[in-house]
Amino acid sequence: MTARPAAGSAAPTRRTRRPRSKKAAKEQALAVDELLARQWPDARCELDFTTPLELLVATVLSAQTTDKRVNQVTPTLFRRYPDAAAYAGAPREELEEVLRPLGFYRAKAASLQGLGAALVADHAGEVPDTLEELVKLPGVGRKTANVVLGNAFGIPGITVDTHVGRLARRLGWSREKDAVKVEKDIAALLPPQEWTMACHRLIFHGRRVCHSRKPACGACVLAEVCPSFGEGETDREKAAALVTV
DNA sequence: ATCCCGAGGG
DNA sequence: CCCTCTGGAT
């Protein structure tokens, strides 16, 4: 435990707000979640799928690729490879041809083959519904596993991708850069039933407003509750944001 | 040039 | 921790 300055004393000048109580932190997180829910009522998983296997495959393919482009290849993919065994037995070149527009197509083709083989070998061809089992599958990391849990099985999962990690830090929810630690920090702030949708909202917001390089703070509904408001903008933009608010 | 809801390997 | 895998949009 490190000593903290007494409340109300001449506060040390720091960029971030002084440490809040656990209760206040949770209230801020809930407020953020509600504001984002209002702003992005259509936030959801944007990958097209009808089964856990389809979502698992689509999520593996979504690495460094837009969901829109994944959705362009998955109809062909799902028709051609209807089950885990089909991916395991697919000719490598045939798989690569379908995946080529996505980027990383050789690695992704290998992932899908290995994934199909592992599902057949260890799970009777079915997609497991626990984090531990999912992350053991080749090509499936913690982020992919949580997407499948939350969106195919309805099991609360926190998806820490580039957006969720960045927004969690800007919102003061975490100071960590390690995704697993960020996940724990978010888990302590929001109730499990909010986890999956909260992540979708954070991702929507990250893509449309809270950009990595040039966040549009002037257009952000979280301006009043965000400890990072105004950071990362040019002076001109900061001034514009202030007069707009 | 930089960015996309990453994962695995060195 | 870094690097690589990859291509299309902006």
Key terms for this structure?
12 helices; mainly alpha; disordered C terminus; 245 residues; DNA-binding; 56% helix
Structure, explained:
By secondary structure, the chain is an all-alpha fold. It contains twelve helices and no strands. It has helices at 22-39, 52-61, 67-80, 84-88, 92-99, 105-123, 131-136, 142-152, 162-170, 179-187, 192-208, 235-244. The chain is elongated, with a radius of gyration of 21 Å. The chain starts with 21 loop residues before the first helix and ends with a helix. Residues 1-16 and 233-245 have low confidence and may be disordered. It binds a DNA duplex (10 and 10 nucleotides) through residues 45-47, 59-60, 62-67, 69, 100-108, 111, 138-144, 147, 159-164, 199-200, 203, 206-207, 212-213.
What would you say about this model in short?
GO terms for molecular function: class I DNA-(apurinic or apyrimidinic site) endonuclease activity. The chain has 245 residues and is mostly helical. The chain has helices at residues 22-39, 52-61, 67-80, 84-88, 92-99, 105-123, 131-136, 142-152, 162-170, 179-187, 192-208, 235-244.
What value does the average pLDDT take? 86
**Element-by-element helix/strand order:** HHHHHHHHHHHH
Based on secondary structure, the structural category is mainly alpha
Low-confidence stretches: 1-16, 233-245
**Helix coverage percent:** 55-70%
The separation of the N and C termini measures 39 Å
Q: Biggest sheet, in brief?
A: none
